[in-house]
Amino acid sequence: MMLPQHLKQIRVLMLNDKQNLERTLFRLEQGFELQFRLGPSLQGRRVTLHTNYPLDGQRFERHNFRVLAWNYPTGREDDSDKFCSLDLQVAGSYEYYFGYGDTERSGSGYIVVDPVLRVGPDLHVLPLDCITIQTYLSKCLGYMDDWPDRLRVAKESGYNMIHFTPLQTLGESRSCYSLADQLTFNPEFSSPGQNYSWADVGALVEKLKKDWNILCITDVVYNHTAANSVWIKDHPECGYNLVNSPHLRPAWVLDRAIWHLTTRMAEGRYEAKGLPANITNESHLNAVRSVLWQDVFPQIKLWEFFQVRVDGAVDQFRALLQKGSRPNLAKTGGEKGLRIIQDPNYRRYGNTVDMDSALETFVPHSPSPQHVEECCGWLREKLNALNEEQHEIMKQHQEKAANCIVGNIVYERLEDHGPKLGPVTRKNPLVTRYFTFPFQDMALEQEMQLLDQPGKACHFLAHNGWVMGDDPLRNFAEPGSNVYVRRELVCWGDSVKLRYGQGPEDCPYLWAHMQKYTEITAKYFHGVRLDNCHSTPLHVAEAMLDAARRVRPNLFVIAELFTGSELVDNVFVNRLGISSLIREAMSAADSHEEGRLVHRYGGEPVGAFVQPSLRPLMPSIAHAMFLDVTHDNECPIQLRSALDSLPSSAMVSMACCATGSTRGYDELVPHQISVVKEERFYPKWNPSASPTSISEVGLQTGIISGKQALNKMHQELAAQGFIQVYVDQVDADIVAITRHCPSTHQSVVAVCRTAFWDPKTHQYNSNVPPMFIPGKIEEVVLEARTVERHAGSYKRDDRYINGMPEYTVEIREHIPLEQSVLVKKSGVTSKGPSEFVEEITFQKLTPGSVIAFRVSLDPRAQKVVGMLRYYLSQFSPKYKRGSMAEDNPPEALQKPLSQLMSKLTLADLNVLLFRCDTEEQEDGGGCYSIPGWESFKYAGLQGLMSVFADIRPNNDLGHPVCANLREGDWLIDYVSNRLIHKEGPLAQVGQWLAAMFSYLKHIPRYLVPCYFDAILVSTYTTALDATNKLMSSFVQNGSTFVRHLALGSVQMCGVGRFPALPPLSTKLEDVPYRISPITGQKEQCCVSLAAGLPHFSSGIFRCWGRDTFIALRGLLLLTGRHIEARNIILAFAGTLRHGLIPNLLGEGRCARYNCRDAVWWWLQCVQDYATHVPHGIEILRCPVTRMYPTDDCEPCKPGEMEQPLYDVIQEALQRHLEGISFRERNAGPKIDMHMKDEGFNVTAKVDPATGFVSGGNRFNCGTWMDKMGESERARNKGMPATPRDGAAVEIVGLSKSAVRWVVELRAKGLFPYDGAKVLRDGKEVLVSYSQWNQQLQQAFEASFWVSVDPNDPKEKCPDLVHKRGIYKDSYRASSPWCDYQLRPNFTIAMVVAPELFTVEKAWKALEVAEQKLLGPLGMKTLDPDDMVYCGVYDNALDNENYNLAKGFNYHQGPEWLWPVGYFLRAKLYFAKKLGEEKYSMTMTLVKNVLSRHYTHLERSPWKGLPELTNENGQFCPFSCETQAWSLATVLEVLRDL
After folding, report:
1. Sign of the C-alpha dihedral, residues 752, 758, 760, 765?
2. What is the pLDDT at residue 327?
3. How far apart (Å, rounded) are the C-alpha atoms in residues 1257 and 1266?
C-alpha cells in the first residue's frame, strides 16, 4: 500500500564528488524511501549510481550492483531536483557507489536498514528501543527439560529477549566460546535416554516467541574453534600452521623454547639461578629475564631466520662477475641499492641476494681478478652489515617478548585481581602456549627437526587471542605482523585461530563448514551476537551474514566492538549491517559518566523540533544495546556495591535504546560468573521461593521485583513514543533522567540515587537536595529501595549459582504522590503564567533507591497544547496524536490558513515573507534584533526560516533565538503585530498568527521554540504555495531551483510607504490603488523593482532604470507578472527625456539621465513584453503620461500630456539619430560630489558610418560599469574607472535588437514609423530603420572582431591586441587600448542580437571568456592578464594605489553574477548551431555552473544571489547579498534550458 506522500518518511542523501563515506553510518528503517541527489560538485555531470540493494523479489548478492535510474520530477532543465530512489523493504547493509565520465567510482558509502522483529501470537512488532535482553551461559541451564523453569526467570523479570551463549558441543576447556563442533547440539543438554536436536531447540524458541513474547538470539563464533575439534585435525589447513604460514616458524621455535623452560622450572632445574617454580617476587621476575637472555634466546638464534649465508652469496656473485654478467635493467631500472629476498619458507639463513641488484650496485673498475675480489669484498661487508641489522631487529622483538612474558606472569601469578595460578607446572605453564603440539615432548633440538617435515609441521596450529591496542582491521596472524614472535598476543590456549584466506577457494572446507553452522543458527534463532567481532575478518563475517539473512531476512545482529574509535566501529556496522552495538554501563567510573552514556545512546533533547518527513539523511551513531552488565564484565558488586545494582539498572532502563543485563545480576550474585570455569546451574523460577532458597528464585530474590518494574517501564516508554531524553546530574550520586513524549507531552522522570561506593565504608550526604519538576505529577510509577534483610549472609553454593540473600527491594508501583514513602512533601510553585512546577523534598532516598514520576503538563497547558496541535493538523497529520478540538474556536482561526492566504497578492506576500531592515524602517519598524546576537535579515517569515533552517535539523535548542523565545513573547508578538497593522488580507493572516501564538503563551516555555517553529513552518509553506499559484506555469511546473529564483521576484518587487514609480495614465486598466498612509488620498500603488538588498531597497536608491530592465524579463515576465511588468515599462516611459531613460529614477522628479544604456535595456523589455505576453503587442498602444514632454520643461501633472507608447519609442530612436547632447541639470557636487565638470556633459549619437550608438567622454561612465573614483589620496577622484565611451558592445547589440524589431513590426503594420527624419549637413533626410539595421549588420564584425591571425591586414592597431579570437569591449573609445580589453559584455550582444555573429567566431570568443573570465558564481569583469586587473573589491580601502583606492576596481576584476546568465545563454545558443556533441558538453557546463548558484541560493540566509563576489567566488562584504539582476539572468538561463 502506498502511504500518502506527507506520511511517507523520505531521506535525501546528497552525493558529492570524491566523498567516500565508508566510515559514516546511515541508519534507515524498512518502509523509508531513500533519495540520492546530486551535490553541487556533481550537477551537470553524467553521474551513474550503482547499488547492490536488490530489485524487488530478487535475492541479495553483495557483489551484484545495478544502475539506478534518475527521476526528473519537473523536466530536465537543471539537476537541482533529479534523484534516484530506493524503497527500502529488506533489512541488511547495502553499498552504493557513483562515478561519471571515465571514473567508475568517484564516491561511495553504505546504508544500513534495520530489521523488523515480531513477537507474540499476533506477531506484533517489537521496536528495537523496546528490547530488554538477558544473557544466559548455556552450560548453566542443565538438561533441556529444565530450561523452561530456568528461563522463566527472564520472563517474570520482564525481559523480552534471551541471549544464549553457544549451544554447541564445547571444547575441553569448557569455555562457552571454545566450540569443539559448530554443527552439533551439545549432547550434555539431553537427559539420560533423551537425544535432543536443533529441531527441539527451534520448537522451544518458537514457543517462547509465541507464548512468552520473548525472542531468542545466540552467538556465532567465526574466529576460532576448540583446539580439540576433531575436524581441525583432519583439516589442519583451516588454521594457521607452519606449512601454510611459514612466517610463524620463528615464533613457534620461541614458543617451544618457553615450553621447555616451563618443564625445567617445574622440575626445579633453575632454582640455582634464583628461579624457583613458585614465582612470588621481583627478584624471581628478574631471574626470568636473565634466563631468557642468557639461555633461551642465544640457544634458538631467531635472527638466523632473517639472515643471508654470506659466503655462499659472495661465491655466487664472484662467479657472475667472472662470467662478465650484466644486471637485468628490466628488474633494476638502473637504480643502485642491494635487495635482499626474504625466504618465503623462513629457513635459517634462507634469505638470498637479488644478484641483479648486486651487479648494479657493486661494479668492478675492470674485469681483472684483483678488481673482482675488491668488489666481492664490498658485497661481503654490506651483507655482514645487513645481517647485523637483522640481529638488531630481532633483539628488539626479544625485548618486547621478554616484557610481555614478564607482564603475563605478573598478572597471572602476582596481582591481586589476577587468577593467582601458583607454582609453574605443565598444567599451569609459565605462560600460555601460542601453538598446538599434538606429539609427545622431545628435546628442543629434535623438535626443531620437525620444522622440515610438512606432514607434522601442518599440525602446529596458532592459537587465537587478542592484542592490546591493535588495528582491528588488520589480521594479526597474517604475514607482516610480528605479534606471535613478540609475544604480544593475550592468548586463548583452548582455541585455534581459523584461516579463511581471501575467499572460499582458499579454504573450501572451512567456508562450507562455517556457512552450514551459520544457516543452522539463523534457521532456529531470531538473531545473532557476533562474538569477537572486531577481530573477525570482515569479508568472512560479511559472507556468513549474507548466508544468514538468506535464511532469515529480518535477522537481528548485535556485536561488541573494542576498536576504540567510533569511525572504525562504523566500518563494521556498515559492512555487516549490525543492528545494535553492545555498550556497557560498567565502563562508567561514576554516576556522571553513566548519565552521559544514557544521554549519548539515544533519544533527542526534550522540546526538540518537529522534523519534516522529507529531510536530509543525517549520519548517526550505531543503535545501542546498553547493558548494566555483560557476561564479560567484572562483577559490579565487587567493583561498586550491592546497593548500586538497582539505581544503575534504573538509569540503563531510562535510556532510549535497547537495554539488558546478564543472568545473576538481578539475583545479586557477588562475583563474575566465569564463562570458562562456572559449572553450577542457574536457580529455577518459583513465585513463592523463600529469601533463603538456593535452588529457586522469585520476586523476593535480589532486585528481581525492581527489575521487573523497570523493564516494563522501559518497554512502555519506547512503545508509546517517549523519544526525548534529558539527563540531569542532581549531585554527585543522584541522577534524574526524563523521558518525554513530544506528542502527548507526558514525561516520566526517574530519580536514581546511585551507590558506586559501599555505604559501609563511604560517607554519603544525608541532605538530598529538593527537586523541581515542571508540570503536574500524575502518579508515582514506581518507587524502590534496596534494603537489608535478615536472611543470613552469602555463602557460595556448590550446585547453584546463588546470590546475596542479605538484600532485597522494597517496591511500590502506581501510587498517588501522597502515599510515597520516599517523598516527604510536595508543594506547587508557579513560575509565571505558563509554568507549573512541583517542588519535591525527599526523606528516604537512600543510596540504592529509585523513584519514577509520571508527569503531565498542568491541565490548562495540556488543553492548550491539544488545541494548538488540532490547528496544526490542517498542515500535517503528525499533529493528530495529542490534538483536541476547541469548543468555541476564535474567529481568526475559523477559516483554514490557505483560504486566507489565497486572497494575498504577490505584493502582500513581499510584506509577509521578506522586506529588509531599510524597507521596514520606511514604515517606522525594522527587523527584529536579538541582544548579543544579531538581527534577522528580513522582517518577514523568511528572516526566521533562514535561521531555523540551521537550528532545526541539529535541535540547537541553546541557540540565542531559542533562548529569546523561552524568555519572553517579544518575537512572537513582533511576527503577528507587524501584519495586523497592515490592512485587508494581510491583517487577517496576522490575526490568524496572533490567535495561534496566543496558545504558545500558555504552555511551558521549554516547548515554545518547537511549537513556534511548527507554526512558522506551516505558515511559510502555505505562503509558498500561495506564491506559486500566482506565478506562471514555468514556475509552477518548474524545479525547486526555478521556484527558489522566482521567489526573488517576490523579494525584490514591493510597494513602499512612498510610491517609487511616477503615476500611470488613469486610462489604463488593472492599475492598483490604495489610500495613502501619508495624505489619506487615493493613490496608485504599483510595485517597483529594488535593484538589490540591503543597499538598494528603499528611498531614492531603490529604483534604477538599467537594473530594473535587466531584471524585468527574468523576475516579472518569466514569472507571469505581466501587469506589473507593463506598469513598470510605462512608468519609466513617462520619464523619457533627451531620448533617454533615467539611470536613477528618483520617482521621476529627481531622475538622473546620465546613462547611455538604460533606454536600450528598456526597449529590449518592451520587445520581450510584446513577444512573451499573450496579446503583448497591445502595449504599443497603451497611453503613456509624459512627465517631460520637452527636455527643459518642469514635470507635468499626471494626464496633462499623454501619448501612445509607440510614439515614445519613436522619440527615443529619433533623438539618437539626431544626436543627443546636454548638460545634466544642477550639475555639480549637489548631484554628484565626485564628478569632474566635463563629466556632467552627456552625449549619445548614431555614427553615420557604422550605425553604432556611441557617446560619453572620459570623465563619465554611461554604462553599467559605472564606478567613479572617490579617493583624493590616490588622485582618482572624479575619474571613471571604466568610462567605456565610444560604442560599447552591449549597446550596439541592444540597439541592433531594437531596430530589427521595429523593422519587423513595421512590416506587419504594427508600428507607424519606418524611419526618422534627421538633419544631416543642414539638410533633412529620412534615415530608414531597415537601412540602419543593415548598416549595423555589415559593420559589426568588421569593427569588433579581433582576429586570431596576428598578421590580419584588417587590424588597424595590432600593437594594442592583448587577446585574440575575442570581440572588443567597445569601438573607438577615447583611450584606444580600452577597446581591446577582454570583458564579458559581448555575450550580452550575442543573446539579444545573435545575428551579428558568425557562429565559429562567436564560439571561439566564448571559449576564451570561459577560460579567462568564468568564476564559480560570476564573470570576472576584466581579463586577469590585464595590468590593472584586481579581483578583490574593498570600498573602504583608501591608500595611494590609483587602481584600487575606494573600490576603484569595482568593475576591473571582481566577479559579477548577472553577466554569467548572458554568457551561458550565448553558449547554449551557439552550441546548438554546432551540433549535438558541442550542445551536450555545453549542457554539462551550464548545469555545473548553475549548481553553484543553486547551492548558494539554498544556503544564503537572504535566499538570494549576490551582486558580485571577489576573485574565485570569495565572499565580498561590500556586495549586496541579493541582487535583482543576478536572480533574473540565472532564471533566464533555466528558461532557455
Report:
1. negative
2. 85
3. 13
**For this structure, is 531 an active site residue?**
yes
Q: Which residues pair with 352 in a beta bridge?
A: 341
Backbone angles phi, psi at 177, to 5 degrees: -110, 10
pLDDT > 60? residue 2: no
Q: Crossing angle for the helix pair 941-951 and 1008-1029, nearest 10 degrees?
A: 130
Pick the catalytic residue: 129, 255, 531, 569?
A: 531
Helix (H/G/I), strand (E/B), else coil: 160? coil
With a CB cutoff of 8 Å and minimum separation 6, the contacts of 765 are: 731, 732, 733
1060 vs 1083: CA distance, rounded Å: 12
> Nearest 5 degrees, angle CA 1077-CA 1082-CA 1084?
90
Return the half-sphere exposure (C-beta side, CA atoms, 13 A cut-off) of residue 185: 17
Nearest alpha carbon to residue 1185 among 1198, 1166, 1175: 1198
The secondary structure of 310-337 as a DSSP string is HHHHHHHHHHHHHTT----HHHHTT---
Interval 85-120: pLDDT, tens: 999 999 999 999 999 988 899 999 999 999 999 999
Instruction: For the beta carbon of residue 1395, count every other beta carbon within 10 angstroms.
Output: 11
pLDDT band at 830 (very low <50, low <70, confident <90, very high): low
CA distances from 1230 to 182, 322, 1221, 1385, 1519 (A): 97, 102, 21, 32, 26
Give start and end residues of each alpha helix (H) in 1474-1523.
1476-1499
Break the chain down into helix, strand, coil percent, rounded to 5.
Answer: 40, 20, 45
For residue 494, indicate whether it is catalytic.
no
Torsion sign (Cα): 1224, 1230, 1235, 1238: positive
Report how far residue 1505's alpha carbon sits from residue 1041's, in angstroms, rounded to the nearest whole number: 12
The catalytic residue among 534, 623, 1172, 1451 is 534
Strand order in the sheet with 836-842: 771-774, 836-842, 823-830
- Residue 1332 phi, psi dihedral angles, 5° rounding: -60, -45
Answer whether 610's CB lies under 8 Å from 1010's CB: yes
In the annotation, is 534 catalytic?
A: yes
Give the rounded distance of the alpha carbon of 72 from its chain centre: 24
Average pLDDT over residues 1325-1346: 97
Q: Is the pLDDT of residue 833 over 70?
A: no
At 704 the three-state DSSP class reads helix
Local structure of 1291: helix, strand or coil: helix
Single-letter amino acid code for the residue at 906: L
Distance CA 1112, CA 1168 (A): 9
* Cis check: omega of the bond before 166, within 30 degrees of 0: no
Angle at 204 between CA 203 and CA 210, to 5 degrees: 90
Question: DSSP readout, 1127-1184?
Answer: HHHHHHHTT-BTTB--SB-GGGTT-B---SSHHHHHHHHHHHHHHHSTTGGGGGGSEE
Q: Please report the pLDDT score of residue 77 as a whole number.
A: 65
Distance CA 387, CA 366 (A): 28
User: How much is the average pLDDT of 305-311?
Assistant: 95
Q: How far apart are CA 775 and CA 1324, in angstroms?
A: 93
Pick from 266, 449, 461: nearest CA to 347: 449
Distance CA 42, CA 18 (A): 10
833-847, 910-924, 1241-1255, 1378-1392: segment of lowest average pLDDT: 833-847
- The Cα–Cα gap between 1130 and 449 comes to 107
CA distance to 77, 826, 1351, 1509, 1515, per residue, from 1496 (Å):
18, 55, 45, 12, 11
Q: How many residues does the chain have?
A: 1537
Q: Measuring CA to CA, which residue among 532, 676, 674, 675 is closest to residue 173? A: 676
Mean pLDDT, the chain, rounded, equals: 94
Cell 498542568 found at? 858
The answer to whether 865 and 775 have CB atoms below 8 angstroms apart is no
Read off the C-alpha cell for 887. 469548543
Flag the least confident range among 139-153, 621-635, 763-777: 763-777
Candidate list 295, 632, 923, 956, residue with the active-site label? 632
